[in-house]
Structure of UPF0102 protein:
Amino acid sequence: MNPADASPGAARALLDRAHRLACRAAGIAEPAARVPPAMSSRASASAEGGPSRRPAASGLSSGQRGARVPAPGAVAPADRRAIGDAFEVRARAHLEAAGLVCLDANWRAHFHKQAGEIDLVMRDGATVVFVEVRARASAVFGGAAASITVAKRRRWWVSAQAWLAARAPGASPPCRFDVVAFDAGRLDWLRDVLAG
């Protein structure tokens, strides 16, 4: 099914199913309520043929104006972080089972504004391996590996430079950039993705 052609109800069902699959794959319980009650009542009113108007701007306080209402089926940031942490734990276990040694996890260069977070820093023999863990509920939009943009690659490279400067000053060990991608719970380990 093409998500762009789906009705709002079918799109919502697709998002809910994708969320349930991601939670199952990560081994965590699905949150009980992800949709705010105001959205549920508005959605049910419009489904019953009632009005589905937004409140007038004059009826909102200044703090409410411009406030973002989460999309139906959206995952709260805390839930998203828990899901990401669970996938990182699975990726680390997989890499350690393959013989890599963990040097750092969730490392961030606070002193460098262009650097991002490195999910895992591993050692494979003498090679330092910078690992990005990506997870997607399905491969409909290209999958987990395709979600790594050019900007993300640039931040990843800058972060690796910052990690080497902080943890191995003066040394220049061989380095590699790997991706551990989870598509609908299936793990793919892509080695040396920035080579070339």
Remarks:
- DSSP finds four helices and five strands in the chain.
- The chain has a mean pLDDT of 74.
